[in-house]
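Below is the record:
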Amino acid sequence: MDTEKNPFDELYDKIENAVKDLTTLKVVTAVGAVTIGQNSVTENGETRETRVESYQNAKAIISTIDLIDGDIMTVMDEVFVNEATYASIRDEHLERIKSAQEIVDKNMQTLLTLVKAVGDILDAIKTHNK
């Protein structure tokens, strides 16, 4: 039996998925052959797009930030450390991490405000229906 979700349940699902996507921030700087594409993935009967990345034969710096724990992990090709011509690219990557963290902080505040507003609406509906 397939039941159709009401608009509030659909909105809640979208917010829940957004929160899951916001737990890890990834910043990538790559020089050379880079391939980026999308694949469709179906989980629990729902299809979503996922990003596919390949940095083979590229010089790359990849930083991941766990937004829950605050852990930051950066992996970089040694040319960004050993060769002066790549130093400005490395420095730009580090600046982008700072900027990305600020953007995520703002987005989290917006999302929390939205979640609170949806909760208030649902409470008002429950109260009205009693």
Q: What stands out?
A: The mean pLDDT is 83. The chain has three helices and five strands. The helical segments are 7-21, 79-82, 87-129. The first helix runs from residue 7 to 21.
